[in-house]
Amino acid sequence: MSVATSARAASSPGRRITLGRAILYALLLFFAVLYLLPLYVMLTTSFKPLAEIHQGNMLALPEQWTFAPWREAWGSACIGLECSGVHGYFFNSIKIVVPAVLISGLLGAFNGYVLTKWKFRGHKIVFGLILFSCFIPFQIILLPMARVLGILHLANSTSGLVLVHIVYGIGFTTLFFRNYYANFPDELVRAAQLDGAGFFTIFFRILLPASVPIIVVTIIWQFTNVWNDFLFGVSFASGDSAPITVALNNLVNSSTGVKAYNVNMAAAMVAAVPTLLVYILAGKYFLRGLMSGSVKG
Amino acid sequence: MSFLHIHHVHKRFGETHVLKGVDIEIEKGDFLVLVGPSGCGKSTLLNMIAGLDSISEGELRLDGQRINELHPSKRDIAMVFQSYALYPSMTVAGNIGFGLEMRKVPRAGRRAAIQRVAELLQIENLLKRKPAQLSGGQRQRVAMGRALVRDPQLFLFDEPLSNLDAKLRVDMRTEIKQLHQRLGTTIVYVTHDQIEAMTLATRIAVMRAGELQQLGTPQSVYDDPNNLFVAGFMGSPSMNLVPARIAEKAGALVALIETEKATLALPIVRDRQALTDWCDKAVMLGLRPEAITDPASANRDGGEIFEADLEVDLVEPTGADLYVVTRLGGTNVNARMRPGSPPQSGTQTRFAFDVSRMVAFDPDSEARIRDRASVGSAPLASSA
Amino acid sequence: MSDTASPHGKGVRERLQHWLPKLVLSPSCVLILFFVYGFIAWTSYISFSDSGMMPDYAWAGLRQWSRLWSSWTWGIALHNIWVFGLLYIVSCTVLGLLLAILLDQRIRAEGALRTIYLYPMALSFIVTGTAWQWFLNPGLGLEKTMHDLGWESFSFNWLIDANMAIYTVVIAAVWQATGFVMAMFLAGLRGIDGEMIKAAQIDGAPAWKIYARIIIPQLRPVFLSAIVVLAHLAIKSFDLIVAMTGGGPGNATAVPATFMYSYAFSRNEMGIAAASAVFMLAVIAALIIPYLYSELREPRS
Q: According to DSSP H, which parts of chain A are helical?
């Protein structure tokens, strides 16, 4: 309910553009520009030759459009001693994201199902313990995790990161599915029991087909989180097995040589495109994940 | 041996005692309605019959077999839920056939069964739709179809009409009754609506606070209530309950009721033996509105009529009937009269009391005061 | 739900059905118990040991803790997180509420604007840091742009100024999270009963007064959620600082998260690193546990 709307409706029947409205739109526009500016600068910089960056204006469009920075970022930029761009790391991230999202999502769906439809004594405590794992500062697990990954021979491997992301993703996926299934009528499960369906049949035939929205929310949330992770990547994977965020940071913050800002920006865009794409295509679900990840669903 | 035997069943959730020893027996083909206010334990009892709630104490027997430990799916029971509980991702046909599919009925057999039930319920044109595309009444039918298709020994209904609007509710009520008569199925039906209970049941079980108050035919529960609660709960408008005093007058037992002008002395004809012990004691009299009429509509064949002039407080026409309110023993009393020529409020008019229908209750224990002989017609199964 | 007829001495299948829910839940429980609570216990223990590069399980009492509290860098880190956290929470909340109220005026293109305000939340902190590092670059970024536009005296070199660098991180962090806070407030605003607002208008209250006296006080739960979430994000902030300043210049933008990381992996001082991590956990737990408790407690029926 908007105060302005009904106030306007009450006071002035005509649809006049008042000074207040003009200021309102000006403010909104100003903030929109402010929020878009970094992205704009990133994009234009990534299409400029280095010389133009040094001479020209940051806000100006490229005088001479070039795809060379993108090609270099993708295929030949030097990260550490390796000069083959970020593409390998991009695929590392994909190799980590896909299994981590699927497995943590499936576990979360099962957990949510059991915690709402097959409640047992102490189910609230179990949920509380799982949920708290979403909020711990991960610094608390860095040291033992590094050792355990070493013992399991998973250090510096994408498989190790998959394991890490599954473990620390369970909390959120469980939260999402628990809240969703809590609103799912218990009578459905009872009806299915009378019909003779067992634990898994009820889940796969009745609940899961009706869970598409929360599945989308979970996948998007986990995808974004895992893709954007830096701490686990930098702590547990180095060299060839690093994810894109670590590679980007190494590229940008390496102290050797002349800073190729255009290549850096192109690499940053490469790292940003998958999540931006998800956001643009499924913003509604992205927002729902954010909200239920912070406030109770 | 009765078909469904609920024997001294208790339910405890931790500290709370939800069912306190309920005994009910019904025969094959009976339509048992469990009725009572919310929280009386009727839904819990239904869930226990279904196997969805465990039994803390007591025994459930279906067709002679103990079913306490039997898994819900093995009890040969089907249930219609309050929210219908239709599987949202399946079509109507899928919903109806799911139980058969789980019981490994081959596809062809399933199809035929679905078709048969769909015809019976007139939902053949809906079979391909999803539940979200159905109206409330249609969902209700599908939910019933899902139960009917399995052809179980026992049907359970958990307030199936409470989500429908008033008109549809009456229509569906009729249909359920017709189905029961046509198929001869045994049904246990839970509702808080006493009219639904009266119209549908062959047996009514009135419950309150985890205890069975009365079990009997609708008519016996209505005419011969076991206690004040049943008297007040069943019937609409509800039974008039009037404080009175039992006395002996000229060798006959009467109930004295104070009115504003005089003391009314209604002759006691029912439960006379028992009421002899109540001489000079206060009781609560129960009289249905239709047992207080104008002299012309009084039932003089079967009843015993006592007439008196009383002041009219208020007149409430409903179209079919006319309810006249007067004051007896300090409370409002509803009388049902012919709608033809209403008396004016504030005037005196003549009331006819059918005292053969008058019942009396102990005002302290709320129990009915009745002769022993009449107990047989309405067995009291509740434990104190 | 699980309270169905219990299968005493029934077939294996039924007994399996009875245990299946717990069986299905158990892998997650084992993982969480080991990797979360087991690790917390391990790290906590290590913070009371003499562990350096390798863990040393001999009890050393509060030695690491006293080293931590006497560390100059840790002092800076605590000071920074305090400054950063406070500015971050206040700016995000104020700006987020402002944007939400502006958007709530039945404006055109609300969807598009909302999308624009919120998109930074989809980006990795590393991308954000990279972008803002470039944007605020003293030589070629904002400063040069302003000079080009004719504002010759404009100077903006916070990124390399030890006293100011932490504020550049605040700017980038606020840019990233405001849209999220805005979305929370917008949802809160949309949940307020319209009839109450109509009643206030009939009473003759001006719009600003309706916001100040009726609407904003009702958003208290949203304020609480926003502040808890932001505080928790602030304490965990690591990526953005690494990407923008690397904790520098010098140690100027060190925070507990970067402190812990450098002691754990560069300086091989496991004990101190563990102690700092335990401290971070304690602060977050003090914040989150009461919040979760109040959020998840179901109203007693």
A: 3-11, 19-46, 50-55, 68-75, 87-117, 123-132, 139-151, 158-182, 186-194, 199-201, 212-228, 231-236, 244-252, 261-281, 283-294
